[in-house]
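Working notes for the structural subgroup meeting. M.R. asked for a predicted model of this chain before we commit to crystallization trials. I am recording the input and output together here so anyone reviewing the notebook later can reproduce the run.

Input as submitted:
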Amino acid sequence: MAKAIHMMVRVQDEARSVDFYDRAFGMRIADRFDFDDFTLVYLRNSENDFEVELTVNKGREQPYQHGDGYGHVAFAVADLGVEWSDVPLLIAGQFLGAFIGAILVWLAYLVHWGETEDPGLKLAVFSTGPAIRNTAANLITEIIGTFMLVFGVVAIFENEAAAALGAFFVGLLVLGIGMALGGPTGYAINPARDLGPRIIHAIVPIPGKGTSDWEYSWIPVVGPVVGGVIGALAAKAIFDL
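Returned structure, recorded in token form:
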């Protein structure tokens, strides 16, 4: 059974917010970290292990409203083995998203397919491909990229200061991986991201589309799986998860 252990909310007035959580829930300041642009205040109650994180952005003049500034909730899992039952559904969800995204892209470029002569460019709209076709080198690149993604995401959220802007830093991480490692293979770093659109490319009607390059297709699947596992194991060892 999953258990809520942490919640982050953005507040404009630190003093009023601290006073509210104290009077309403008996939660008091346990830690406070002050940075140049924002302050993180952690509130806890001695009777339970739930924690509230208040993020105070300096210079904020207007109160927050729905959709204006994100927050997050963290859960702990007593028996991780039970949660593995959700893995097939999560994988299916990722592939469904990839299918839908690829179909939307196909529709967006509908009038361009017939005007584009190069079948390789048409495939590149959907899936990745190597700049230099070398099985070992291409596989290693995908392993490294996905290792950096998984390890980097864990590192970000293990840092309390960075976790407050976790989505932003993860976006920068993906951008950095793409800029550094995107050239050799197009950096799939997720099996669903490449295989899902590649399947749609093979199914939908595209004038002169050519092959879906199934000979290469296993690399952006196997590489990310191997890199992800190594990254997770390394993160677990280093961060004592």
